[in-house]
Amino acid sequence: MRLTFSTILVLCAALAGAAPLAHAERLKDLASIAGVRQNQLSGYGIVVGLDGTGDQTSQTPFTVQSIQAMLQQKGVNLPPGTQLQLKNVAAVMVTSSLPAFAQPGQTIDITVSSIGNAKSLRGGTLLMTPLHGADGQVYAMAQGNVLVGGVGAQAGGAQVQVNHLSVGKISNGATVERAVASNLGADNQIRLELKETDFSTAARVVEAINDQFGPGIATALDGRVIRVRTPSSSDQRVAFIGHLENININRGRDSAKVIMNARTGSVVMNQAVMLEDCAISHGNLTVTVGAETNVSQPAPGSLGGTAVTRNSTVDVKKEPGRVLMVKGGASLAEVVKAMNAIGTTPQDLLAILQALKAAGALRAELEII
């Protein structure tokens, strides 16, 4: 069946003004389009014009070699045996990212970093430097005045250094010379790649796309990649993808996870992680976690109904010879909060969480960073 994408685009425009779904996320925040990405560039260059803060040439011979090679290209031949004493020159690495679909003539920002022993790049000028991609081809040419931020003066005139003086930036310091070939829309289809593998989210993305654009438009290849059919013309394809990215998706719930920072004692949970029945004894730490069931019965003849609520109670003490009792259904968040309230050390928290996981009482993935 042939699809009428012009009708689909009209439908997208009508849906664009609709209110977003509750607790929904845009598709562009959950997935990226295969092939639409940045490409890293780097190059070796020379910064000149420094105020005596350049490389010490006795310890960085590559700086001298670079200057000699540059002078020869400019037609300046130094006498054999000449020993250059350069204080205003520094060898640097120039790095940048080439945006997707960047075209020759556009400019990009670059970062200049010293690779020698220069004290500062402030006030220097980067000479023309080719920036190469992973394939060895030149994709941009960089040049300009290096800006080193983070240097100021106090009221008394004393200089304050708040960052590294050996790294600087040049806004729009590189000009794109070569475009990266793109196969976006090849065979009238694109591939959406979820940022995290999740079969339930992939299924919901396919369902949402097909609900708005018609059956068969989207097909899940696995728990991460989704194939989407697109219009054949480039202008309709761009409009189609633009509307596609703004579809609201109710993503699936993430797997239960607890992240513990062993250095700071921080505990982060991505959802309400519950504990099974268990008992732990750890030093002189005593924590009792329970739940109370409250039943509210309305008066006879009233319009209200019977309400049942469960309130968690946490009691924490430091007493020797006691056992940490945890009842099933208790929230790990409440236990951790209570232990932190009495100044429990990160080592205690780590030991208890590891014991809970080993005993099978913690129904979540425990990650220690």
From TrEMBL:
The keyword Ion transport does not apply. Residues 1-24 form the signal peptide. Coiled coil: none annotated. It is found in: Bacterial flagellum basal body. The keyword Nucleus does not apply. InterPro entries: Flag_FlgI. Keywords: Bacterial flagellum, Cell projection, Cilium, Flagellum, Signal. It comes from the Bacteria. Its main location: other. The basal body constitutes a major portion of the flagellar organelle and consists of four rings (L,P,S, and M) mounted on a central rod. NCBIfam families: PRK05303.1 (NF003676). Belongs to the FlgI family. Assembles around the rod to form the L-ring and probably protects the motor/basal body from shearing forces during rotation. This is Flagellar P-ring protein. The gene is flgI.
